[in-house]
Design goal:
Blueprint: H1 3-11, E1 18-22, H2 25-32, E2 39-43, E3 46-51, H3 56-62, E4 67-70, H4 77-88, E5 92-95, H5 102-111, E6 116-119, H6 123-129, H7 133-153, H8 163-176, E7 181-182, E8 187-190, E9 211-216, E10 218-220, E11 223-224, E12 227-232, H9 238-257, H10 264-280, E13 289-291, E14 298-302, E15 315-318, E16 321-324, E17 328-331, E18 334-339, E19 342-345
Parallel strand pairs: 1-5, 3-4, 5-6
Antiparallel strand pairs: 1-2, 2-3, 7-10, 8-9, 9-12, 10-11, 13-14, 15-18, 16-17, 18-19
Helix pairs in contact: 4-5, 7-8, 9-10
Length: about 350
Amino acid sequence: MTERVKRLLDSMRLGEHEGVVVYDPSNMFYLSGYTGEGLVLVARGISAIITDFRYTEQAQAQAPGFEVLMTEKGKSHEDIAGALCASGGIDTLYYEEDFVTVHTFNALRESVRGVEWKAVGSEIARLREIKDEDELALIRHACRITGEAFERILPYVKEGVTEKELALRLDFDMMSHGASKPSFSTIVAAGANGSLPHAVPGEYRLRRGDMITMDFGARYGNYCADMTRTVALGQPSDEMKKVYGIVLDAQKMAQDAVAAGKSCRDIDAIARDYIYSHGYEGRFGHGLGHSVGIDIHEDPRFNQVTTAVLKAGQVMTVEPGIYLPGVGGVRIENSVVVREGGCEVLTHPDRELIIL
């Protein structure tokens, strides 16, 4: 039994006849180290990965503390899970109600008989919130790859280059310097497209005066980085310079407030109230940030409705923005580790406006 499995079973106060079936790949990796397909079944006397022929060797290498069981013709993942539960005397099985499809759940109920079904809720996600030192080392490295990619992309931000070309170059650069892949679909939004917080890079060609928002991150060791910078190609308009200054001040103020014990909603309000007080109410419509780890978006979140309180060891983004339809937008984002009395900044490229 891995330490993380033990922590999960202990945190849920599970007895010897209770188990958890895990399908979410991120949760499977967190508990076992395995990155393939299938399912993980854990209980006091069971630590098993159930997969097919394609992944058995991989599972054995990645998760030496787990029994690896292989499907075969006429014997599905759920059939094997049912046999394990029966032999282990499992009478209560917890499942990921926010991930398992109706089809899969029906297959589970058909194959795993005689158990009471309960939702696992946020138990695994809650354990994942606090990163240990090994996890933090991987995220730091991912952030370093990301920041260096940004610095190397700047000479290529020129008139006539398309958003898509810049996005592809960023992805290639990160992977050329150690990333397994991007953490998410890279965003490059230039000119008026900058008003779209999650713009998809297209064939728009950069022009003088454009502001260009680049939101991207490297995945390293199965952990994510996330950063955003907005740069100018030539002199931007006076309004966009003003917008940049407001967003930068809001980002700095909110980031400086991050510390263990602080309310996530209050930190969101620092940036939001500052932006709204300068006449841009309604133009910052998303949350201030989110946790980052195995997944690019994890809990807790900085937003207007959360009741979460920051804890040491969480990795958070701080990313205010202002978005003006038909004109453009600005977003500036750093990732930080929550500490007692402050935070450790993981994103190091300059936040001041860069005019190329």
